[in-house]
Amino acid sequence: MRFSNDKTPYKNHFGAYIAQGGRKSPLGGYYFHIEPVGAGYLNNSMWAGGIYCPDAPTLKAIRTDIYEHTDEYKAIIKNSEFTGTFKWFDGNKLTTAPKGFSKDFPDIELIKSKDYTFYRNIGEQTLLSGCLFEESIRVFRLMLPFNRFMNRAIQYHLEK
Question: Could you tell me which CATH class the domain 14-159 is placed in?
């Protein structure tokens, strides 16, 4: 930056990821991201949770648990409070059934994902209010059942 004509900071956001075992842990966790708003910036501030870009054994463990406990998983992600709060990062998906899983599985779309992450944008009003901390706690509490499912799947299947 010192000799560059463009003095825009390299990193214009703050992000924190919290998971059991630290940031290198294969377990799901909670992500808090704040970016400036206005002056050409989009509002990309968000709360997120789950597992982003897991390695192959972790991804297989998650898919296996969803396959074996589909109703439990669907009860979590289709809960009205959960769906009313979070959006799915759905861009990274397989086009066919994952290797080792039946194409005839009725809920095949649930195990085609390569990431298991949900997010919620933080509005400018919330960012600037005095209730950001309380709202963060509320949002992350709603994420808890999802992360517990993910982490149970990983711990059980990777220990086998």
Answer: alpha beta
CA 69 to the chain's CA centroid: 20
What is the residue extent of each domain of the chain? Answer: 14-159
Q: Which residues contact 31 (CB under 8 A, 6 or more apart)?
A: 15, 16, 17, 18, 46, 47, 48, 49, 119
Q: Tell me whether residue 70 is exposed, middle or buried, using C-beta atoms within 10 angstroms of its C-beta: 0 to 12, 13 to 18, 19 or more.
A: middle
| CA-angle at 159, arms to 158 and 160, nearest 5° | 90
DSSP label at residue 23: T
Interval 69-98: pLDDT, tens: 999 999 999 999 999 999 998 778 999 999
Percent of the chain with pLDDT over 90: 69
How many CB atoms neighbour CB 137 within 10 A? 10
Residue 67 CA to residue 73 CA, distance in Å, equals 9
> Which pair of structure tokens corresponds to residue 11?
């990193």
Contact status, residue 28 vs residue 54, Cβ threshold 8 Å: no
- CB 138 within 8 Å of CB 120: no
